[in-house]
Amino acid sequence: MGKRETSDFQEHRSQDGNLWDSVKKTAFVLGTGLLTFAAFRNTLTWHLQRFWGASGDFWQSQWGKLHDYFGGNELALFSLGAMVIPSLSFWMYNAVLMIIDLTGKPNFITRYRIQIEKNDPVDSAKLRHAVITVILNQIFISFPMVLLMYPFMKSRGNPCGTELPTFHWVLLELAVFVLVEEILFYYSHRLVHHPSLYKHVHKKHHEWTAPVGVVSLYAHPLEHILSNMLPTIIGPMLMGSHVTSIMLWFCIVVIGTTITHSGYHLPFLPSPQFHDFHHLNPRFSNESYHGKRNKKQHCMGCGTKPSEDKYMGPPIEYVMEILELVLTQNYFRFELEWYRQSAGTSMGAAMAPMYANGYMFEFETQHILEPFNDIILSYGRYIDDIFMIIKGDNSTAESMVQYINSCTLNVQLTMTMDPLTVDFLDVAMVMTFGRVIERDAVRLQTCVGQPAAVPVRVSMESVTSQVW
To answer: Which residues cross the membrane (predicted)?
Structure first.
C-alpha cells in the first residue's frame, strides 16, 4: 500500500469517526430532550390527576346533592346546566362591561380600549336596542334550540346521569367541541358574508363598527341560528355529552365571544384586535362585501376592488401592533428639544400617507357615504382629495360640505364645484354627453423624475345626462 493510499484511508477513517461523533452527540441531545419531556409530561399528568381526583370527589358529591334536590328531574337539570348557568355567565360578564362602557370608568380598564374615542361613552339608546335584540334571540331561538337538544341527547345516552365524566374524557370532549365549532363557524361566517346574504342578514351584526361585549349575540335570527347556535351545539350532540360538559363548554363559548367583541385588549386575555378590525372594515374579511358603497368607492383606483383572494400577508395582530408602535412612538426634534407626538403623525413620516388614507376611509364611511348615500352618484378619493358627482344643486352641495365639516375639527373640506368641469389632482374632469372623462391631463414630475399622474379615460356608466 502506497503512501497516498494510506493517507486516503486514514482520512476516510477520520471522516467516519467525525460522523460517528456527530451521531452520538445528536442521539444524546435528542434522548435527553425526550427524557425530559416524558418526565415533565408524567409529572404534569400526575399532578392534574391528583387535583382532579381530590376536586372530583367534591364535585361528584355536589352533583349528587343537586340531582337529589331536583328529584331526578332530568329536564330541569338539563335546562339549568345548558341554559340558565351559561346565560347567567354571559349577562354577569356583560353587565360589568356595559357599566364600564356607559361610565367610561375605571380608567385602568378603559385605557385598553382598542378603538380610541369610540364608545367613550357608548350610545345608551343603541346599547339598549342591542340588549333587547340579544334577549329576544336568547328567548325565542337559543332556549328552544337547547330544549330540542334534550330528546336527542337522551337518545344518545343519559345526559343527566348521576356519575360525572372523567377528567380525560372532558379534555377529549373539549378538543372535539373546539374543532367542530371552528370549522362550522368559519364556513357559516363565510356564508353570511356572501353578497346575497350580507346586506339582508349579517349587516345587522356589523352595525357596530366598534363592538361591545353584548354585541357578540346581536345578530339577525338566521345568523344567530347558523353561526352562533349550530356550531356550538353540534359538538356535544356528536359526543353524547353529559350536561356538566355542555355547561362548561357553553360558558367557555359565551365568555370567549364576549371577550372577542368587548373592544378591550386586556392583559392576560386573548387579543380581540383582529375582530375589531373586521367590524371596522368588513370588506377585509374572509368574504368581501359587494355593497353599493364599495362600487362607488371603486372608481379611479381609490377603493379596493372586491376580491375573494385570501390574505397571505403577516398576521393581522402583528401588523396592528407594529402600526400602534409606529403611530404612538413618533418623536421629533424642535429647538434642541425632543418631543413625542401625542396625536396623528408627522407629514414627513413614511407612514403618514397610509395613516391618512386609513383615517379618511373611516371618516368617509361614517360621515359621507352613509349619510349621503341617496344623492352620491359617483365617489372617488386619493388620500385626502375627494371627487364626487352628486344629485342636486349648489345649495345641496354646500349643505353637504357644511355638515361634513361639523363632524370633526380634524377634517375640514374646501369645495370646488361646477356642473360641467372640475380639476381633480392633475386631471380636468369634464362632463360630456352624460359621461365623465379626463381632458388635458398635466404630467407632473416627481423628485425622481417619474410622472405623478398618467392620463386615463374614466367612464362612469351610472351618470346620465338627465342628472344635470
So the answer is: 75-100, 130-152, 167-187, 246-264
